[in-house]
Amino acid sequence: MSSLYTQLLDLACGGLLLTAALVLWRRRVAVVVRVFVLQGIALAGLGAVLAIHEISVQLWAVAAVLLVLRAGVLPYLLRRAAAGPPGPEPPPLLGGAASLLATAGLTLLAFAVSRPLVEMAPKGGVGAAGTAIPVGVAVVLVGFLVLATRRGALPQLAGLLLMDNGITAVALLSGAGLALLVQVGVALDVLLVLVILQLSATRTRETVGDTDLDELRELRDS
Amino acid sequence: MMTVFMFAPIAVPLLAAIAYAAAGWRLATVWAGAVSAGLVLACAVGAAVEVVHSDSGAFSAGQGVLRADAPAAFLLLVVGAVALLATVATPAYLAAEIEAGRATDRTARWHCTAVQLFLAAMSLAVLAADLGLLWVAIEAAVLATGFLVGQGASRAAAEAAWKLVVICSAGLALALLGIVLLGYVGSDVDGVRIAVVLLVVGFGTMAGLAPLHAWLPDAHGQAPAPVAALLSGVLLSVAAYAILRVRAVSDAALGPTFGRVLLAVLAVVSLLVAASLLLAQRDYQRMLAYSSTGQLGLVALGAAIGGPLAIAAVLLQLLGHGLTKAVLFVGAGRIRQLTGTSRIDGVRGLAARHPMLAGAVAAALLALLGLPPFSLFASGLGIARAGFAAGLGWLVAIALLLALAIAIALIAHTSRMLLGEPPDSPGAATGVVRLPGSTTAALVGGLVVCAAAGIAAEPLATLLRLAADTLVGAP
Asked: Which of A99, A109, B94, B317 has the highest count of CB atoms within 10 angstroms of its CB?
């Protein structure tokens, strides 16, 4: 039983990491949205595995909310924001091969940095989840990399979403008692960010006709 | 009574926001924002008096969700005072914008609603009992700010709002990871170290500290002037307060050295960034924004030094910086409305045509640079003295050199704007020369309070001492 639990846990975490690498690698928004659905399922699966193991109704509820939000609502909104005429996205700072290498490097870094966290996780039992924390940290780091190396608004949003998914994974794996409050806060913030994105995107399209080019240069120094 | 003082600063702005959303921008609601900010300030004074005269020095309300101790009461004072200045200047600013056709009654309505929501979120952040609630409140404030910055119809405003929301959300995400890990690791030294780094970098993003400061100049450059005042005076101060609280946690678990090194690095890098980008600055709103990064660098320096004297000076610095920056941004907004440009070389000879405005801006600039009698002199001196006493003289010397470079750049740019011959053609100045009474009140009021806090520190001194002791963890 315990080994099956560990295997399922590893499967979910592997899914998280793989999808994170795919988000960094693939550039077409339609593909990225589908990857996010998969990642949402992996995240909800992680919650479900923990719920089965700890026989906790609350965790089941969390897993259900995660499935709805991270695999349903958020990817849907992301795709809606991407609808409309696709603007010419400036090329990212990292190419395909370099981004995969970066993922590998960041994963190693995540494992190195979070060693103290793994060491303090109790061996076996519930604590086995604690040994998987570096995976969550790696997803956060990959998200940060996406945020830093992509210049379009939508890919940056994908990076933010990746970071939030990673943090949620860490929260689940560490069994944090941070109630649903912060969880809901995180979900809410991404929802609202999407709303703002839509707002500013439509506004951009409305005003793009009479945009003064000087104004774009204002957002620079010197 | 204390319960009222703790709930009212959150509830009153929320009610004002509902009022604005329901009633819109009309004669009856024009001053509701200022009244709400005034009530927040009054509650802050009440809370400060109660805290000073209580035995325990801390109150909690709402079943332990809210907590008011001396640092929280002081920060509530900062929030209330800066918000009052900004909201008093808002009606005249919005009226001029509507007259110029850059805003409408509808945008004014949502502007005021968002400002009140921002104020409620900031009060909640200050009074939050734990870091989790503090985090939620700051995130809510960021979203309100994103809306406020993006309301200008230009593409640049949308870009600035987007940058603000994305960079701050990323920073806050790091802080959230830190909070989650802090709950997990308990008192394990290595674990706390990771969590503290994440928390300081995350909240440092919000405080405009390098390396994640990039949102700040864009947001300040594009925001309406009263909003820029709120951003600089309130949001940065609350973020700095969050850093001080993290520093207390770090000191308790790791000893003082770790937090000191971390904050000292952030401080020096921030001062360096501010100094290098100020020297060739061409936009006066961005100039003020980079000055904020420098000022918060000094705050981080004080936090790095630690100890009661430095922490008390840091808190006083936050108050002084908030007040003077509010005055400067309100003044800058007025200058922009008069001249129609935000470029430094587009403004000449302001002193000849608008002596009152130019005088207030000049005085606020001198206050910002730490000249007596303003309170920033006392707080700057306090940070430097504490630094030398702690054996960190070399660090203070580096910071002072960088601060000197910042001061020279600020004086050079501003004197070009204020002095000299006014341009011959009336240009964009459409005959409006007299300053509105409410704007004058905000400009002069802020300077007077800042000077008063510098000269007669006594009523504040007790609160400051208590707050510093609480944050340092002394008995």
From this structure: B317
